[in-house]
Amino acid sequence: MILLHLLKPELDDLIARGEWSTLRKFLSTQPAPEIAELVEYLDDRGSLVVFRLLPRALASEVFALLTPEVQNLLVAHLAQDEMRSVLAGLTPDDRTALFEELPAEVTQRLLALLPDEKRREALVLLSYPEQSVGRLMTTAYMQIKPHWRVADVLQHIRRHGADSETIMMLYVTDERGHLLDDIALRRVLLAAPDTPVTALMDGQYTCLRSLQDQEEAVALFKQTGLYTLPVVDADNVLLGIVTMDDILDVVQEETTEDFQKLGKVKPIETSLREVSLGELYRKRVGWLVALVLVNIFSGAGMAYFEETISAAIALVFFLPLVIGSGGNAGSQSTTLMIRAMAVGDVRRGKWWQIVRRELVVSMLLGLCMGAAVFVLGLMRGGPAIALVASTAMCCVVLFGSMTGLLLPLGLRALGFDPAAAGAPLVTSIVDIGGVLIYFSIATWSFRHLVAGGS
Predict the structure, then answer these.
(1) Rg (CA), the chain
(2) Which of 37, 398, 428, 438 allows an S-S link to 294, with CB 3.0 to 4.6 Å?
(3) DSSP symbol at 266
(4) pTM for this prediction
(5) Which fold has domain 2-127?
(6) pLDDT-derived band of residue 181, with 50, 70 and 90 as boundaries?
């Protein structure tokens, strides 16, 4: 970004003076990711000029790396022939991702620019459900036959490898297209030319289903550590492949969505820099109003214990401390639990082990914080207040931690997204429970201990 900032005045000057050959020569020496960053950094006019100067093959590669906002800008301003060239150069999965972001009428117009074969391919991929593996896959892969020799495979790669998304993994299929095995290119290169493909096969492979959820695909990529995985249908017919770069995009989208849910913000489809004030307001106001209504119960709880508060005003001094500590403990627990669920640490049938560990940890945290509050209570309100505040601290921290832990588990058991158990929701629940716990302990203590002692 610093380099772009330094180069921008010079690039603006070249654009203003119309020195297209100099600018084209500079762009031809830059890798596609840096050109994409440059196009993102320039203003609308500069972005269009730079993109139009790119060679055809490089333009498609750069286009696939741009954000949807800049892609939409180019789609709106490029001529039909320019757009047809860009679309033809995109891989099927990148083309599908573009169509998903565009309005329906624009998608229809762009589909009409594609050759018949590529149009049919795009329509097939778009027909898969949203968030399914089918939307991610590309049909550009290397397919070989079991009766071939290694020499045949290498000849096939030289002839068709340029049209494939990757040649790192080769897929063996029978005459009906059923997937038989996958073979790493390295094994082929190290084998003798007359070695039959069957000699390299072991029948052990991992595959995705076309209707499988994309989050399940992320977990499988993490488990296998592979760069690419094949996609098959219910009859085990090879339909395409999904590569690691597509999975990284899914991970970024899911992580962003989970963070927004944790903060009780509805998912924002565009970047924070580009989102309008009105949309940003609408995404946030709903949950804030809902949480206000939830927090009314905290006030109702305090009103119920008005007599206890009147008897010992010093209790109010410790209320924010106790309630805030419980909310903080709950936020920690829910964050750790949602993260554990996301990476697959929480397995069915094993959740009780995590609950038991959190129970012990939260009890230790409560005792530690309760001891600190006991000292403050002695200084502020005497032994009775110290006993109430420290006991309430232990109980509220325990309650907050277990709420933060169990709420995501409960949501997942009911079929909801665990990320919906965000920190604001947990904090609001703990606030209500904390008020009831705190003043219930205070009421019981004053009625039985203080009154009995007097």
Answers:
(1) 30
(2) 428
(3) P
(4) 0.52
(5) MgtE N-terminal fold (1.25.60)
(6) very high
